[in-house]
Design goal:
This protein is of the alpha/beta class. The protein has helices at 23-40, 59-69, 87-101, 134-148, 190-199, 217-235, 255-261, 290-298, 301-305, 319-332, and strands at residues 3-8, 44-47, 74-77, 80-81, 105-110, 183-186, 202-205, 208-210, 243-251, 270-274, 278-282, 285-288, 308-312. Strand 1, helix 1 and strand 2 form a beta-alpha-beta unit. Helix 5 packs parallel to helix 6 (217-235). The longest helix is centred in the middle third of the chain and has 19 residues, at 217-235. The termini are close together.
């Protein structure tokens, strides 16, 4: 395990039990948690993107703010739903956030999951071309983004521009060199992981995936990772691929930890449905004393196959407690997994 970071969905709720009551709380606490994670030695701060929900939805202002407040930690998304995105605007926003952070952006994209409203992307002004599915639309938007991020000119300049142009066709600005090589795809199926490798995108694999064969979650996820790495090699990419997996991991070192997560010590995989017909397998929560966690995680095949581990955090429990959760894992568990 080379890198360990956190993944936040950025929920907020006005419940009296929540320490994250408003959208402002969620955003400002996300910045504070990223700063705290960097101070603890974590490697990444990643954020989920959901629309029409009381969760984080507009990642680039947040990522730029974190980039300005930190110096070392990777900042990223896990993931942006490309059904909702104009790829050229995304290229501009991502380029700006990457430049603010000094080239630390790790941009996770995906076809997306079921959202809060039916066909929410239609309200954003997007719809699939005739004969395409919404998944096709997401992949095509991603392909356009990848092309634009190369930094090659494609737009004909105005012969009488307001400001002087450089010679030749124009590109989207600001352009951040190297960002094209730091794009990830969140894949729920083996086939999509292979497609991501063929496009030269790194692989993000979540705490759920399509149930393809009935094996335990971590075994199926490891198979997905191996298929991705083979496809990457077959495609002839010369750079090193990266793979992240997400896990809910809680080291029980205090009475408060046991109060929050003690009931999850017997957690197991479970199967459900995403949408009407996609059977998915959901990975277990790991909650135990640190020495037990080390033993359990040593048997997780996908954790062994990946180079990056993203710890899902219960952000509504507040910055201090989530920093404690991260510190517990980094101090008591991660070294036994080969980290640092």
């Amino acid at each position: 395990m080379k890198k360990i970071g956190f993944l936040s969905f950025g929920h907020w709720s006005d419940s009296p039990h929540s320490q994250t009551r408003t959208a402002s709380d969620a955003l400002l606490q996300a910045v504070d948690l990223a700063v705290a994670a960097e101070e603890l030695g974590a490697d990444g701060a990643y954020f989920r993107v959901h629309h029409f929900a009381r969760q984080l939805a507009s990642p680039f202002p947040l990522l730029a703010a974190i980039g300005a407040r930190t110096e070392r930690i990777e900042i990223g998304t896990g993931v942006i739903d490309m059904r909702y995105e104009n790829p050229l605007y995304t290229a501009e926003d991502a380029g700006a956030a990457d430049l603010v952070s000094g080239g630390r952006l790790q941009l996770g994209l995906s076809r997306g999951s079921p959202e809060q409203v039916i066909d929410g992307w239609r309200y954003f002004g997007y719809q699939p071309s005739e004969g395409d599915t919404e998944a096709d639309m997401a992949r095509k938007n991603a392909e356009v983004l990848l092309t634009v991020l190369r930094g090659e000119g494609f737009a004909r300049p105005n012969p009488r521009p307001m400001f002087p142009n450089p010679p030749g066709l124009l590109r989207v600005e600001p352009h951040s060199p190297g960002l094209r090589e730091r794009i990830w795809w969140g894949a729920s199926s083996n086939a999509t992981a292979v497609w991501a490798a063929e496009q030269g995108m790194h692989l993000m694999s979540s705490t759920l995936k399509n149930d393809e064969g009935g094996a335990p979650f971590h075994v199926q996820q490891a198979e997905q990772i191996r298929a991705f790495r083979k496809a990457w090699a077959d495609a002839g990419w010369q750079r090193e691929p990266r793979v992240s997996v997400s896990r809910s991991i809680f080291a029980l070192t205090s009475d408060l930890d046991r109060a929050y997560f003690g009931d999850d010590t017997g957690s197991a995989d479970h199967v459900g449905y995403i949408g009407a017909s996609t059977r998915a397998i959901f990975g277990r929560t790991y909650a135990a004393e640190p020495d037990v966690l080390v033993e359990q995680l040593a048997g997780d095949e996908a954790v062994a196959e990946a180079d990056t581990l993203l710890l899902t955090v219960p952000n509504q429990l507040g910055v201090d407690y989530n920093a404690h959760v991260l510190d517990n894992v980094l101090t008591h568990v991660a070294p036994a997994l080969g980290w640092r």
